[in-house]
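Subject: Sanity check before I submit

Could someone independently write out the structure tokens for this chain? I want to compare against mine line by line before I put it in a report. The sequence has 166 residues.
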Amino acid sequence: MPNWAEVVAALAAVVTALTAMWAANTWLYTIKSQRADDCLSAAHAWRAAINRCLSLKERLEGKKEDAEAAGTNLGDVWSAYDRAWECWDRFNQAFVVARRYRKDLDVDEPTRMSGILFEIRDAIRYGRPAGEVVQADMVAKLKDVRMRMSIIVAGLTSKLGDEPSS
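---
Independent answer below. Compare away.
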């Protein structure tokens, strides 16, 4: 005849072990999701900061009266550029952590993103002074930067928007 106390204790141990395993898996899934969300949020903040910087640059490159009316000066552009670097730094940190859980993320993504920031720096540094009409090549360059930036963020959104891999 079985000892029912031992049977109940064994069943309770199995249920406890299964519950602990489920809790650990749920916790890991939550961590993966949080890291992906942090990375995605930082990428979108980076894109917004760059758009702000480019908008100020375009406004400054427009007619002098427009820049003065908008209160835009080169210092505003550089401040926005510095903010874009801060956002990139936040993204880079979040990306490194997210990549621990998502090996499908391209390790070169932060480098591509910083390359865009260096291009913007050159456009700010070597741009024409305010008051001259915007040249087609500058407009095309800034449009190209925006397009490449959007492609990077869209790719990250596509990868990180999926369910975290187990």
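---
OP: Matches mine. For the report I'm noting this point. The CA atoms of residues 92 and 110 lie 6 Å apart.
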